[in-house]
Design brief:
With 203 residues, this protein is an all-alpha fold. α2 packs across α3, α2 packs across α9 and α4 runs antiparallel to α5. The chain is elongated and about 75 Å long.
Length: 203
């Protein structure tokens, strides 16, 4: 009965699990850096504030730098499409594809696919509008997630210690070692993945 109640309550508040999960992942990634700063004499709070603030500044800065590039790429793609396919009707698409020496069967398939896609987008416009309103309502998580991440990162070791209390005492050392190793490896993986992504974006 207790398990059923817990599952029901978890289902009722299911919308909070994704933001909390994101906050926990960010805390796991940044925790080893904060630990190293503690070893150099920083307090946990100041180290967390410095690392987390730097992380936010870098993330926002990269987003600002990448936005014009992404917008430019999208504009170029649209311009290239309009150049080769000035008429978006099925007859116009077939004419343009035939001028490119595309086989008739493939041209017909491509034109039909484009028309079906365009029709589907028009029909889903109302659904996208309602989804957009729902997304706007969830923008509060943009504020909540960084706050939760900051306090999770600051008290990460305390949270981990409290969580280990539910584990039988004879198994705590093994579980603590496993959690620490997984956290370190997962954090290194995500930081490396982010570094590679940034390097590819700059290149």
């Amino acid at each position: 009965l207790l398990l059923a109640i817990v599952c029901y309550l978890a289902y009722v508040v299911r919308e909070i699990w994704l933001p909390l999960g994101l906050a926990l992942i960010l805390a796991m990634v940044l925790d080893p850096v904060v630990d190293r700063m503690e070893l150099r004499g920083w307090s946990r709070t100041w180290a967390t504030a410095f690392i987390f603030g730097s992380f936010l500044l870098i993330t926002v800065g990269l987003g600002i730098l990448a936005f014009p590039y992404i917008g430019g790429q999208a504009g170029d793609m649209q311009a290239q499409f309009a150049k080769y396919f000035p008429d978006h009707s099925q007859a116009g698409l077939l004419k343009s594809l035939h001028q490119m020496k595309v086989p008739d069967s493939i041209a017909q398939l491509a034109a039909n696919s484009y028309q079906n896609l365009a029709g589907g987008l028009e029909k889903s416009s109302s659904s996208l509008a309602s989804y957009g309103m729902q997304f706007a309502g969830n923008l509060i998580w943009v504020v909540i997630i960084p706050i939760v991440t900051f306090y999770t990162l600051r008290d990460f070791n305390v949270i981990l210690t409290k969580a280990l209390l539910v584990v039988p005492s004879r198994n705590r050392p093994q579980i603590q070692t496993a959690v620490s190793e997984v956290t370190i490896i997962f954090g290194k993986y995500l930081r490396g993945l982010g570094l590679v992504s940034v390097s590819n974006g700059i290149a």
